[in-house]
Amino acid sequence: MKVTSVEYKNYRNLEDGFLVPCDGVNVIYGDNAQGKTNLIEALWLFCGGHSFRTSKDSEVIKWNSDFARLDLNFFGQERNQKASIIIGSKRKLVSINGVEKKSSSALIEKFCAVVFSPEHLNLIKRGPGERRRFIDSAICREKLQNAVALSKYNRMLVQRNALLKDVLRKPYLEDTLSVWDSQLVHYGSLLIRKRLDYVSMLSEKAAQYHRGISKGSEELQIRYISTENADAGDSVEEIEKKFAEKNLQNRKNDIKLGVTFSGPHRDDIEILINGKNAKAFASQGQQRSAVLSLKLAEAAVLRERMGEEPVILLDDVLSELDASRQDFLLNELKGCQVFITCCEQSNKEQLKEGKVFHVENGKII
To answer: Who is most buried in 83, 256, 272, 332, counting CB within 10 A?
Structure first.
């Protein structure tokens, strides 16, 4: 997967224009608030139409403009392709190779990228919800059926929790819980199995990248923590049995408190550096390196599953990393197209081979 050009009009603070990157590493440098992240965000929108910075499409439209337009030319699935996104104040239009699509989700099957931004440090700094969202986002971009299982599980969970609150006031409704439980357990077990598979692949590849970034001084481990006691070797049927038993054990407590206490919505992913929990014991630089390793591993898993190298988007990635870790990201990521934003001019001087763009007041040179 290679971006051959991207054109932007009325997009945030970017001056209307276009960018033609190289096939390798592209460094985009400039002071803060000049528009570097806007370019990374524009590329990411072609992965499904959603920003990693805001949930409001209207925020990407330049001030005093009615719409924003992005056009992407890329090589993917062994041919040259083009995608366009027009974002208005009320609706978004997406077309691929000149054919208008009903939903921006159609982009998922065409353009593939992995993004890192400083907000992704929350994978370590915050609670389990951040880590679950990371895993679920990754598996949903692999296959539509994974997204369907997640959506149905979440819907069943909301309905079951609503029923639990009713049971507390109307005990005779408890008999109806089993109807919801069977569906909850089914879709939840499918989700857990997919997560276990993904974490297994991710852990192996993240460990390899982290050894490279840390020059062999650190060992990274990723573990899936299951409230249902599910193991990596369990089949979907075995997970269903464990989940159903756990659900039954927790039923009285669930009714008492009005919430479901077991299931994939309560699971976690543990991140360890040299055997110690990264959230509690790792430095800022170590945490950043660990998250970077996870994102690079995500790209490697996507490559294996989809048969193509995804584009790698790294926003403000070099700060808080020492020179050797910066060198790895600038010069050791081979075979893929990379976009890296940074503030320090010295960072671009570390680049041995690639292309450099300077951003100033929204103008990309």
So the answer is: 83
